[in-house]
Design brief:
The complex is a heterodimer of chains A (114) and B (117). Chain A has 114 residues and is mostly beta strands. Chain A is 0% helix and 59% strand. The N and C termini of chain B lie far apart (37 Å).
Chain lengths: 114, 117
């Protein structure tokens, strides 16, 4: 069974810091990995999607990397801002025909202090 | 282009009742997936519909069901509600299902928060 783990569960940093969020998964047979942001009580906003053949994706201050062989992904946030405060979730889509729905990690709750 | 919309946004029911939640995908999107989010279990997949057919189903009891209409709008129904069904129910849409659709981003709606008393 695919397990997705995110470390740390919570993180508090001062504004301006660069930070790294980690995601690990047990089954490397994936189509892709997606990073989402969730604000309290809200839905999910897609941040970055990395296909299994890619190593990284960048959008603005965000950079996500994927190492499929080791079952790891990182989300790098540069020059953090208070508006980045949210829960960040990673999700993988497996190649297994019967299990192609997204499998989510439990998230990292980020607080950026002004 | 309007995003994924879900109605109602908030709902309070009592044990034993049934509930129907609605999801309208992004215009042109034909695949709709449903997820349940709870503090204890996190985000869990319920089911996926494409062209009015259920393509995939998660590990939930038969009390949870869904359907999709010809205009791609989807509904999910929970019968005989239990306290543990209290959750945020999220709907996600993508253009296609399977094949190229597996490489696509899923776009999520704001969710319906269900409280069972």
């Amino acid at each position: 069974k695919q397990e997705v783990t995110q470390i740390p569960a919570a993180l508090s940093v001062p504004e301006g810091e660069n930070l790294v969020l980690n995601c690990s998964f047990t089954d490397s047979a994936i189509y892709n990995l997606q990073w989402f942001r969730q604000d309290p009580g809200k839905g999910l906003t897609s941040l970055l999607l990395i296909q299994s053949s890619q190593r990284e994706q960048t959008s603005g201050r965000l950079n996500a990397s994927l190492d499929k062989s080791s079952g790891r992904s990182t989300l790098y946030i540069a020059a953090s801002q208070p508006g980045d405060s949210a829960t960040y979730l990673c999700a993988v889509r497996l190649m297994d025909t019967g299990r192609r729905a997204l499998t989510f990690g439990s998230g990292t709750r980020l607080q950026v202090q002004p | 282009k309007a995003g994924v919309t879900q109605t109602p946004r908030y709902l309070i029911k009592t044990r034993g009742q049934q509930v129907t939640l609605s999801c309208s995908p992004i215009s042109g999107h034909r695949s709709v997936s449903w997820y349940q989010q709870t503090p204890g279990q996190g985000l869990q997949f319920l089911f996926e519909y494409f062209s009015e057919t259920q393509r995939n189903k998660g590990n939930f009891p038969g009390r949870f069901s869904g359907r999709q209409f010809s205009n791609s709008r989807s509904e999910m129904n929970v019968s005989t509600l239990e306290l543990g069904d209290s959750a945020l129910y999220l709907c996600a849409s993508s253009l296609v299902s399977g094949g190229a659709g597996l490489q696509e981003t899923q776009y999520f709606g704001p969710g319906t928060r269900l409280l069972v008393l």
